User: Fold these one by one.
Assistant:
Number 1:
Amino acid sequence: MRARALPSRHVMGLLLSAVSGMALAQQTPDALLERISSAVSDITYSGTMIRSVDNNISTLRVMHSNRDGVIREKLVAQDGEGREVIRNGDQLICLFPEQRIKLIESDNRPASSLVRLPLAASDLQRYYVLEDHGPARVAGRKVQRYFIKPRDGLRYGHRLWIDSETMLPLRMQMIGRSNVVEEIRFTNIDIGIDIPDTEFESDIDSTDFKVIRASTGPILQATSTSVAADTVARSEGWPAEASPGFRFRATMTQTVSVNGQVAQRVVFSDGLATVSVFIAARRADAKASKPQSQMARIGAVHSYQRDMGDKTVTLMGEVPEATLRQVADLAEKQLMGVSAPVAED
């Protein structure tokens, strides 16, 4: 599937005093994340972050700003080849110096590419419980600790260390049954500073890089609680709910950058965790072989590929393995009736 330099995921912001931070303890996970979501795009900051995935540690230099409604971000890996991720409005550019690849894609998500924000926060309290774990300090700043605890084994838990003044998450962990599957943590950060636009330009000369564009066709958006969601799901031949809590959210046609195929992408979410289902024509050189299935994991992200007749279906999501298998099993009856787009030459 699509190569991503760094997982997307998102950082926050705006005024919240220590007193109001304590008040959040009485709220639901929906309310906490909605307040974070409303502030996340406005804050300006620059800092250094450590990311841990499967015991592999990497360091990132991170900058974020919102000027006149245009979000700009720059993530630079301080290790290895020095990959860059640059966001300017709804355009996301990933630069891979060793492979000499420039990946360009549209990213119309609000806020940031670092912190995972809820797709539909109104559903969260059905599947998660918010626990207040008290005050602490991260990167020299006062924070309030929260645990968004799942009510079942179909989703991960989320530990958040939220800056008491700004609502910026300074540390985040994704929790499996008994272990941390992924973590990011600021080691230093400057908040509310002025960052010149020139700082968001690339430091890599990509003149002769191979350019890959991950294009996206029309998107039919629908919230989980709306009649429109069920209507779109039925019209597309999909179940309104593919697994307990994971409801139909959107459908689109997308070019998969790794193999150049055109695939239909369907998104299911419980409001926080999301599963994407990609459907593409089964490659001609694989049709004669026995249908295959394969599960893989990097950090919190599981991917599951299964051949279904003349289609290859790939599921991806930051969910436990059992959830992907359940979504695949429950959705397969519908998928077999969906006509997959023909692969490009």
Note: The CA atoms of residues 35 and 167 lie 8 Å apart.
Number 2:
Amino acid sequence: MVKSEVCECNSFYFVGIGGVSMSALAKILLKNGKIVAGYDRVDGQFVQSLKGLGVDVSFDLNADISGFDCVVYTDAIASNNKILLNARRLNKLVVSRGSLLAEICRQFSHVTAVAGCHGKTTCTAMLAHVFKAANLEFSAHIGGDDLSFENAYVAGTDYFVTEACEFKRNFLLLKPDIALILNSDADHLDCYSSAENLKDAYRQFANQSKTAISLYGDGVGGDITFGLDGRATFYARKLRNEKGYYNFIAYERGAELGKVALSVPGKHNVLNALAAISVARTLGLEFEKISEGIARFKGVGRRFEYVGKLNGASCIADYAHHPNEIKAALKTARLITSGELYVVFQPHTYSRTKTLFKQFVGVLSSVKRLMVYKTYAAREYYDDAGSALTLSSALKRSKYGDCPEDICDFITNCRQGDVLLILGAGDIYDIVKRLIKG
């Protein structure tokens, strides 16, 4: 395979190792015989997973990195981070998360990179299950906690499936064999300044791949398309909804392939399944194995995940932090709710809320029992125009939450049969899980 300065390194130190992508890359390197360690601020789920594999994780910015060949950092790390400054002073090889992913991709014979504003994690994990069912020698880099594979799977260098993140144009570092573009909905406009610039970036991503697959009618180009429209290369007919879980008949270029039964709820997952089918058929896999793999996929953590009960209500957590994702989650929740639906939404970054403010108001205004929880700022500073309080004030039936006790007050009247839907990509998931544990 391809040799490079990065992949010739024997030891790697990750700054921000607890991130879902960073920890997955660390696991891939570890499985390939590399020495891995890292720093993070928080002792979270993926840090615990790495510790279980024997990885040394420090929470001290004075950590000793002198013995490591390469230092890897995530975009969430500030340029004046003490470890990064020390790495450069020591003349270490310093690379970004996206650059490391690109180098890892170059070590595989066939690379599928999954891009899009939403659905990346679900579709990447779904493809991993398809590859497993087809007995391929493959590895996977998943941006979430798949219930079987977690966030990384390593079993060969023939095929690699990875998420390709559009934030700061990171996905343009990749030149995959197959570029799968699930959608090009406006997001990260703080990076791209306009929806058209973002769409142009997706077009560039498609153009620099050997084969591009995209959502029919999305306008990003592509050799192959998928969608519910019969003019797409791959499409679905005879959709049936059984308590939120869909099955359908898949078609390829007008010819019937067969039945697909989803083990995850929501109509949006029909599109994710069609996207996975498009990739698998392009690789020449048998449809029987494809449908088997899709049926095996039981879901990813924080993607419509049942996490327990609060005040008798079934609590479901979803990573949705874009208006279109919220719309899909609400639609699915209403299908399975026999009682009342309570929704707690935590905005993720001030810039996203500000640039998509009207869309957030539009999709949340239909919710009768809504709490907007304080913004998860991530890498940003406070901006009143994009704050959770400002969004809550624009929604007539919304309550604003600033602490876990506010959530408890919000669901005081919940009872058996009600559903509490937790939406957001920030720390709201951990907050609610702590409330459930009591």
Note: The chain has a mean pLDDT of 94.
